[in-house]
Amino acid sequence: MKLVLEATGKRFPRRGCLRLLRRSSSAVLRACQRPLASCMAALAIGALSGCTNASITTAQSEIAAGQYTAAHHTLAGAAAAGALSAREQRQVEDGLCLTEYKIGAPQYSPSQQQRTCSAAVNEPGSDSAPILARIEEAQRVEWSQRVAAAIHNHDFPGAEDAIVMYRSIPGADPTLVSAWSRQLWTAVEHDNGHTTLRSRALAPAISQLAREYPHLGTMDNRAFRHWIENNMMVSGTPLVSGIEIGKHDVNLWIPANQLSVAALNLDRFTRVNDAQIVRCRCDGRTNIALQSSGLPAYLVRLDPETRRSEILILAQP
C-alpha cells in the first residue's frame, strides 16, 4: 500500500487517507483482481478523494472557529488539487464565497466577492445565494451614493462611470438609471446654459455660420433630418440610431457598437450643431446620448471665440 501511494507522487494526511482506504477496502480488493495498473489507479483515486474530504472537513472546522483566512487557504488548496465530486465542488465553492465575504475588503473587493459567490451559486444545491444577494445590495447602495456625489459635484465623467457600474450589478433599477440620466443632462445644460452675455458674444459667430451654410436657413425639419442622416453615414453604416429635432436642440442617440467610430468622427457632430444654429439663428446645441442608457455621450455647443461648434463633454462609458 505504501509503495502504491508513493508511486502517485502525492503526499497525503496519514489519518484521512487510512480511514478512506479502510472504508474502501472492498472496492480496492475488487479492483486489484484486475491487472496491477488498475489496482494502482483505484488506490490513487481513493487516496485523492479521501484527502480532499479531509481538507474540506478542516476548512469547515476553521470556519466554525472564525479562522476565515486559514479556511480560504485550505479550500483554495482543495480546489487546486482537483478530482472533486459534485458535492465536494459545491462545498468548496460555498466555502470560498463565505470566507471571502467574511474577510472582506481590502483583501477581497466587493467585485471579487461577487464573482466568487456567483460561481458558487451556479453549483446545484448551493447555499451562497443569500450572501450573493447581500453583496449585490451593498454594491448597489455604494454606487448609488457615488452617482449622487458625482452629480452634486458636477463631476460628469465620474457620474457616468458610477452609473455604468451600477447598471452592471444584477438587480439594478432601470427607473433609477433613467432619473440619473435626466439629472445629469440637467446639470450639464445648467453648466453650459443660456445667458444674455453669451448670446451677445455669439452673435458674430452665428452670422458667420449663416454665411457659410446659406442653404440650411430655409430647410424644414424633414429635409434637415435627411441632411443629418446623410452626414451621419460612415462607410455605409449610420453613426446614430435616433434623431430628434427641436426648436433649439438636436438630440442624437449612439448605439454601443458605434462609439469607437463616433470618437473618430466628432467633426460630423459639430457640423450638425453648426447647421442647427444656422436654422434657428440661436445658441443651439446638439445632445448626443448613449442608446442603451440615455446617458450623455457628447454635448456640442458653439464657442464664441473660435466661432465653431465644439465638443464640450466626452462620456466615459
Task: Explain what you see.
The chain has 317 residues and is α+β, with helices and mostly antiparallel strands. The protein has three domains: 2-103, no CATH class; 136-186; 193-314, GMP Synthetase, Chain A, domain 3 (2-Layer Sandwich), CATH 3.30.300. Helices cover 63% and strands 11% of the residues. The protein has helices at 2-7, 14-23, 25-32, 36-64, 68-81, 86-103, 110-121, 129-152, 156-167, 174-191, 196-212, 221-231, 259-263, 266-280, and strands at 233-234, 237-238, 242-245, 249-254, 285-290, 296-303, 308-314. The chain has a five-stranded mixed β-sheet, sandwiched between helices. Strands 1-2 form a two-stranded antiparallel sheet. Helix 2 crosses helix 4 and helix 4 (36-64) packs antiparallel against helix 5. The longest helix is centred in the N-terminal third of the chain and has 29 residues, at 36-64.
Descriptive terms for the model:
two-stranded antiparallel sheet; alpha+beta; disordered N terminus; 7 strands; 3 domains; 63% helix; GMP Synthetase, Chain A, domain 3; 317 residues
